[in-house]
Amino acid sequence: MDLTDAFAAAQGAWAHALARDLWPVARSLSGPGVRQTLQRLQQDMPDLRIEQIASGTQVFDWTVPDEWTLRRAYIEDANGRRIVDTDNTNLHVVGYSEPVDVTLSRAELDAHLYSLPDQPDAVPYVTSYYKRRWGFCLPHTLRQSLPDGPYRAVVDADLRPGVLNYGELVIPRASKREIFLSTYVCHPSMANNELSGPVVTAALARWAATQGLHHTLRVVFIPETIGSLIYLSRHLPALQETMVAGFNVTCIGDDRTYSFLPSRAGDTRADQAARHVLRHMAPDHDRYTWLDRGSDERQYCAPGVDLPVATLMRSKYGEYPEYHTSLDDLDTVVTPSGLAGGFLALARAIAAVDQDVTLQVTTLGEPQLGKRGLYPDVSVKGSAQDVRRMMNLISYCDGAHSLLDIADKIDAPVWDLHALAAPLVAQGLLRNKRSA
Amino acid sequence: MDLTDAFAAAQGAWAHALARDLWPVARSLSGPGVRQTLQRLQQDMPDLRIEQIASGTQVFDWTVPDEWTLRRAYIEDANGRRIVDTDNTNLHVVGYSEPVDVTLSRAELDAHLYSLPDQPDAVPYVTSYYKRRWGFCLPHTLRQSLPDGPYRAVVDADLRPGVLNYGELVIPRASKREIFLSTYVCHPSMANNELSGPVVTAALARWAATQGLHHTLRVVFIPETIGSLIYLSRHLPALQETMVAGFNVTCIGDDRTYSFLPSRAGDTRADQAARHVLRHMAPDHDRYTWLDRGSDERQYCAPGVDLPVATLMRSKYGEYPEYHTSLDDLDTVVTPSGLAGGFLALARAIAAVDQDVTLQVTTLGEPQLGKRGLYPDVSVKGSAQDVRRMMNLISYCDGAHSLLDIADKIDAPVWDLHALAAPLVAQGLLRNKRSA
Amino acid sequence: MDLTDAFAAAQGAWAHALARDLWPVARSLSGPGVRQTLQRLQQDMPDLRIEQIASGTQVFDWTVPDEWTLRRAYIEDANGRRIVDTDNTNLHVVGYSEPVDVTLSRAELDAHLYSLPDQPDAVPYVTSYYKRRWGFCLPHTLRQSLPDGPYRAVVDADLRPGVLNYGELVIPRASKREIFLSTYVCHPSMANNELSGPVVTAALARWAATQGLHHTLRVVFIPETIGSLIYLSRHLPALQETMVAGFNVTCIGDDRTYSFLPSRAGDTRADQAARHVLRHMAPDHDRYTWLDRGSDERQYCAPGVDLPVATLMRSKYGEYPEYHTSLDDLDTVVTPSGLAGGFLALARAIAAVDQDVTLQVTTLGEPQLGKRGLYPDVSVKGSAQDVRRMMNLISYCDGAHSLLDIADKIDAPVWDLHALAAPLVAQGLLRNKRSA
Asked: What is the pLDDT of residue B388?
């Protein structure tokens, strides 16, 4: 598969440009912002289907909330000056704020304000999907500088029964067995968490569509939590039957580190592939456990759901200073090279799963590589080193270890083993166990 | 269950007072000292049954020895002065000494003397249950100061066929599955090894009797080794069928450390519970292996017996300087707080086993804690921390992990999980797998 | 079994003398040198059978090469002076050089020369079994000092269809289950790799013939790689059915370290025995993995072959400076004490496998050692230490652990456990599970 650094860099640049396009859209759990986002993604993935589900629908333990349509929200001071205004950043309004237009004192207003004393210049990201309230988010410095009121607070929005949308893309291939990608489209203007997820996922889907994958690829663009629950409520038996490996794509855009968070089971093929890729691409990556989870793996790996979904990230949610604030931007945090690295790691993990086969050597004893032009025919001290990796690969082609298993055993990148195995298969020295 | 520090402290004080009562009784493998001890314990546990077995009875590879009745033993010097006298401490006579009344030289006497050059002020504890001899134990300083004799040595005792006694207490509960406690009553006046065992076991039995235990509790007060063999010879098939976990209660009274010695199998529910409790109560506790054993686990875990019996101690036998000497006392070694700590650790281990259930979450995907008042309904940075432990618990309620398994997985004290689980069960979010 | 240090020292001296005898023989993959070597070994092992296979025979993926008969090879300078001559050392000719008698320039000659710039005084060991070429090996200093030619290069040899030989010795015993030794006889005048292998193997075979082994011993003296493939092609099903453990005997003669290289499976009885022996004889020995392999374990452990063959060495091939050069000699590298240590380690590994039994204690609970004279009958502080190892042994005689398993569990040399177990079996306290 076509996974050079240069190709990854081009994908990173493409993803970053797409993120710039999507940045100003006022995304939330539902509403026009989600639809605009999905429609923009459709331009690059025409087969993406936009699905919907009605407010009030029961989804396992949850109920699909009302649809939220924000037009504008602002706070005016006594002079009619708009001191906080969602036209500047979507983050200024608490997500799912109910409509309001009230005049109130400085003290009354304060009960509806959210700021971060430790990051006084940042606008925090706050939502209240399941309890009706309204509020504004603003820099702590601004909050502290507000004189006595009165103030007028306006949330010009609708919060009433409607629909919740998500996108689904299936790239069918020879095998009904599937690789799954899930990412979310419910975050307003933030970059690592979370525009990086949908844009890298889009790049992966476009790349995969051009590759001769063995497995069918299923990709969903959903609102976090309620979206994965909705998708599971509609597709769980099929997913359990067909999913070989899945990846939750989130926080995949900055260039500071790589991170791994396992599935609940911890030892699925998705876990193995992600761990393998990061061990070779970024040996010092950050390793988390199931106890550190906080994204849609919570649903995909819940008891009784138990899908093989692992999470390969750059800087993990909650672990970088700009997380869930206006500081998480497309300039200083998420970069083309950060997105490129995330793309490359996930593409390699997908390829590792997709191309994983169990090979068997067709001879008893070692094959004679020399007569096949695969081995130096004069034995001098040290010459054996050159073919050692090939011999190690062959020595584990016993029908009990897949290429990924072998790659872990001999501590070699599986993408190198794919290249090494090809001529051996072509020469008939190795054969696919499935076709034996 | 009622396991506050204050409750444990009260139990430690109660146990220490009981130990004071039992201190002067001349216990040995058999005889009136054992009966007096059991009768005193009956005052606090009226359901304790005192059993007996005849001398000469064959018990597996062993034979129940003759009964030993000591009245008094002493050494008189040439002036009729009693220089060593069991009226001062029971330890002065070798346990199971045969009756004797002889006059002999200093050199002849010396062959019957036992002392410790390294602990010259201590009276050592010496027994000879299975070979007939007689002897006296004394401080090394005293031994070295003895002038030439003659000396008169008197052991006023009976050593002849009789019975060997032990105590058995069963607290029946709904389940026929049992938790087992075993402790020994054959040691004369020593405190950590071994009055701490029976007095803490008595406290545990009295506490358990007031609790709504699920499991039946079986408690034995026996002479070490021969007592456990006798009990096994009479009850082994039933014990193998019903025992969920057992604890050998010994060396549980000083306040210097905690110790764990596993069963032979090493991974029984008793081992898991004891390890769990100590990891949370005393992370730096001393860890021993089966190779360090030296108490009744030798019988309970012998090949073919294989009961799930682990040993949770304070300072282990053989590992503290006062061990098996007159220095092992109720003033400097065993303290109310030492006994309280031992009581608390064992009570927690018993509760961990007794209350261990396998719960299953009743929803697919995460439950919505918010609508149940279990989750903050506004999402701000950091708010998720508050409910993380509850979510971790729920995430492992998959029907495959018991509460104790989950406590180990999420590194939380199982007693905290019991408190967390209760409202979730009450709300129907979790259900007991047994009643599913 | 008779495995004192003195006995091992005598075996080391015997093996060193045998190596001196075999040193000058011009061994290669085939030809008179191999036959002379096997005939010399027959003098010490009359039951050794010399087998042959015809050139051209197909052996799995390989073809038995032509037979090579070297008479002499040399380079003459313009003055007729023989500046390189196999009469000085066999290593001077590239193994399997085709016959040649040519006069050529200095530059033309150089294409046929092999030397080691980093070890300028050493003659390297070079072979070309499967591609026709000719060449000479010489010290780099000599090569650099050669003036302009012309030179005459003569390889007086035959390379044509014939046979390839190997030796096989079977020492039948009561059990059809076998212990296997394999060593190679294709290396010319080098000492650790590889005269140490055949001479230590000969010492082991002679020792084993005098012992009451339970298992049949099968020993092969073969050319490396092609020899093991030939042997497997003729005997694989029988070997797979009967082999309990096998050892590849190579690099077993210097006195600098011990080394272990596991089978591919890594956990066979051969691996366990070799690891056990080295852990007790040489705790700091060098530990290698399957990825470090380079000898006949490559064939014995290949997929589909999967024999339990491990390799216990002194300094491993490729890991000591004199490897595959004329510096690997019988004076500075391989010594009688080095061979003695190798003999002792392998003999202990063979004995550990041969005498491994699974014992069961015949009592429930601990046996009373006192009444059998096996335990001190007076209990004083510390007396229990003396019999602890015996009690540990008994405590694991549960029918599920063999003596070697127990030795690993209680961290005692298995040869000590054999001595401890014997009286317990004799007294009926332990019985062999096989005869239960």
From this structure: 86
Question: Measured between alpha carbons, how far is B380 from B382 in angstroms, rounded to an integer?
Answer: 6
The Cα-based distances of B123 to B137, B325, B328, C377, C426 in angstroms read: 6, 5, 10, 20, 40
The mean pLDDT of B309-314, rounded to a whole number, is 98
Distance from CA of B403 to the nearest CA of A (A): 15
The reply to whether residue B60 touches residue C363, judged by beta carbons under 8 angstroms, is: yes
What is the three-class DSSP state of B278?
Answer: helix
Residue of B223, B224, B196, B227 whose CA lies nearest to B322 = B196
Q: Say whether A305 and B364 touch across the interface (CB within 8 A).
A: yes
Taking only the tens place, the pLDDT of each residue in A117-149 is 999 999 999 999 988 999 999 999 999 999 998
pLDDT in tens, A268-299: 999 999 999 999 999 999 999 999 999 999 99
> Which tokens go with C29?
């993959």
Q: Is the ipTM of this complex over 0.85?
A: yes
Give the pLDDT means over successive 10-residue stretches in chain C (436 positions).
89 98 96 97 98 98 96 95 95 97 96 97 95 96 94 97 98 96 97 97 97 96 98 98 98 98 98 98 98 96 98 97 97 98 98 96 92 66 64 96 97 92 93 72
Q: Kind and range of the H or E element at A245?
A: strand A243-248
User: Given the structure tokens 């200083």, which residue do they identify?
Assistant: A332
SS3 content of chain A, % helix, strand, coil (to 5): 35, 25, 40
CA A360, CA A398: separation in Å to the nearest integer? 5
pLDDT tens by residue, A316-367 = 999 999 999 999 999 999 999 999 999 999 999 999 999 999 999 999 999 9
Quick one: average pLDDT of B374-397? 72
- Give, to the nearest 10 degrees, the angle between helix B336-354 and helix B196-209: 50
Contacts of C325 in chain A (CB under 8 A): 381
Rounded Cα distance between C175 and C213, Å, is 9
Indicate if the pLDDT at residue A382 is higher than 50: no
Checking if the pLDDT of B374 tops 80, the result is: no
Amino acid at B153: A
Q: Which residue of B has its CA nearest to C393?
A: B291
Average pLDDT estimate for B360-387: 73
d(CA C168, CA C170): 7
Q: Which of B360, B361, B366, B406 to mutate to test the interface with A (most CBs of A within 10 A)?
A: B366
Assign C14 to helix, strand or coil. Answer: helix
**CB atoms C236 and A377 under 8 Å:** no
**Cβ–Cβ < 8 Å for C311, C194:** no
CA dihedral (A405, A340, A18, A316) positive or negative: positive
B274, B317, B273: which is closest to B292 by C-alpha?
Answer: B317
C111 three-class SS: coil
Q: Is the pLDDT of residue B22 over 80?
A: yes
C154-180: string of b/e by CB count within 10 Å (b at 16+)? bbebebeebbbbbbbbebebeeebbbb
Contact C365 B60 (CB under 8 A): yes
Please tell me the pTM assigned to this model: 0.92
Q: CB B380 to CB A126 under 8 A?
A: yes
**At A101, which amino acid appears?**
D
In this structure, what are the phi and psi dihedrals at residue C76, rounded to the nearest 5 degrees? -105, 140
Closest by CA position to A251, among listed A188, A181, A200: A200
CA distances in angstroms from B358 to A291, B353, B398, C127, listed in the order given = 20, 12, 8, 67
In chain C the first and final C-alpha atoms are separated, in Å, by 25
The structure tokens listed for C411 are: 């961290």
Q: Sign (positive/negative) of CA torsion B154, B159, B163, B168?
A: positive
Q: Are C55 and C202 in contact (CB under 8 A)?
A: no
